[in-house]
Amino acid sequence: MTAPARSLDPQDITGVFGILPTPSTPDADRWDCTHSIDVDATADMTQMVAAAGISDLITCGSFGEGASLLDHEHQLFTQTVCEALAGRGRLYAGVTTLNTRHTIALARSLVDRGAYGLFLGRPMWMSLDAASIVRFYTDVAEALPGVPILVYDNQFAFKAKIDTATYAALAQIKEVVATKHIGGPSLVDDLLATEGQMAVLPVDSQWAALARAHPSARACWTGNVADGPEPLVALAQAIKDGRFEEADDICQKMAFAQSAMFPGGKIENFVDYNVPIAHARLEGSGLVRSGPPRPPYTLAPEDYLEGGRETGRRWAALRKAYASKVPA
Prior knowledge:
single chain, 12 helices, alpha/beta, globular
């Protein structure tokens, strides 16, 4: 592994953290495909997002298909994104695997290829209790000293949510600088428990409300950056300037756009089909050539897919409405 990335003060974490999809080749939905990364589409997507001014990127979570990539595909994708960024931003590379040793080996290879930090969920073959969660993140931090870690917290993917007391313990690990929070009733408690030692990132449509009440909430995460960065750039600027009525309006429009991809209005119906719905959403927004989803997460009911396309179409309309907010 090369020299570790510069450590990051959580107080310096601001703006939009954009989660990128992983564009695929036309044969990526086949079991015998061994090189599924569409390099050109990946480079074009990254350059588009970086040019809009979104400088913190996340890869290879759930809809980024981290679970269905081969290690050499993780490496190629990470290298392609970092080369396309060309120093204009920071990449938190997804390194969630089924065990600690594989995660560490993969993380070292991605830092070697330019990743600034890690986007890290815990192994989910079996659920980890609180002590095991802290031990897991401590081990990874010890193996990659100075490399910032963005915690991936999602009770659907990892069988349970990280509780507030565990967040307080994770905040004591200096490499753990932030968490991608799924929201819900514990959001504020988790924010307060970290006492500024970890940035708690809400989803984009919930950012304005949280930032209005808690000014320390200076950043959010989004899964829609590849559908168009324009409304996200406008939201970040409105919150930075304290224009909360405008920020509230943008968040409401984002929530409406995203509501179409939740079948029956329930996130529980969405999570098992996250990957194919995400590809359908990108098809609807028409900005990034995403290709087919990778096995085994290739199928979904047609009405679920149409909901994803409708979210993409709604986001495309938002993109046009806020086009003037993005640098030429």
